[in-house]
């Protein structure tokens, strides 16, 4: 005999679906090659796709080359100390990220790093289905080739 009613967990007690990524902390070693320059260093990121929050730092030989911080609600600020530039924008898409793929959102940047999705990006090595080594090929303002290699050193999600 079946009971006249089925026991159900109250709606408030049912687990909520987990967000795709609440936050991701990542660090990459980078090397850069262009016709008139080359270099290497570290790229550190904090990405929160839900809020659009991004903190991005690029260092080379102990010197900060770029700091990008902000979120989708308040806007973004890009500081380039060597170039004496301090840029503000309501949208991430309007800022020239130094030698990184053009992205319109934090979610797009996360997809680029997590899947290798994006123009000019090539996955050179993967582990567990996620890119560990990426190459980005683009053109500089003079139309000359620029190559960037990113090697993942750290990837943390809560």
Task: Please describe what this structure looks like.
There is one protein chain. This protein is mainly β. The chain has one domain (20-156): Lipoprotein localisation LolA/LolB/LppX (outer membrane lipoprotein receptor (LolB), chain A, Clam). It contains one helix and nine strands; from the N terminus they run E-E-E-E-E-E-H-E-E-E. It has one helix at residues 106-115; strands at 24-34, 38-48, 53-60, 63-71, 75-80, 85-89, 121-127, 130-139, 145-156. The longest helix is centred in the last third of the chain and has 10 residues, at 106-115. It starts with 23 loop residues before the first strand and ends with a strand.
Features:
9 strands; 6% helix; outer membrane lipoprotein receptor (LolB), chain A; 9-stranded antiparallel β-sheet; 1 helix; mainly beta; disordered N terminus; 158 residues
Question: Topology, pairings included?
Answer:
Layout: E1 24-34, E2 38-48, E3 53-60, E4 63-71, E5 75-80, E6 85-89, H1 106-115, E7 121-127, E8 130-139, E9 145-156
Antiparallel strand pairs: 1-2, 1-9, 2-3, 3-4, 4-5, 5-6, 7-8, 8-9
């Amino acid at each position: 005999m079946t009971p006249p009613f089925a026991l159900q967990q109250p709606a408030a007690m049912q687990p909520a679906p987990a967000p795709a990524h609440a936050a991701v902390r990542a660090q990459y070693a980078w090397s850069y090659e262009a016709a008139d320059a080359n270099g290497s260093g570290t790229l550190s990121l904090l990405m929160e796709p839900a809020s659009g929050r991004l903190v991005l730092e690029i260092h080379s030989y102990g010197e900060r080359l770029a700091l990008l911080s902000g979120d989708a609600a308040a806007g973004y600020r890009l500081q380039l100390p060597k170039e004496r530039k301090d840029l503000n924008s309501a949208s991430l898409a309007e800022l020239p990220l130094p030698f990184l793929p053009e992205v319109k959102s934090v979610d797009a940047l996360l997809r680029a790093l997590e899947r290798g999705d994006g123009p000019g990006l090539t996955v050179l090595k993967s582990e567990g289905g996620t890119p560990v080594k990426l190459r980005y090929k683009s053109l500089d303002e003079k139309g000359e080739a620029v190559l960037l290699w990113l090697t993942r050193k750290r990837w943390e999600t809560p």
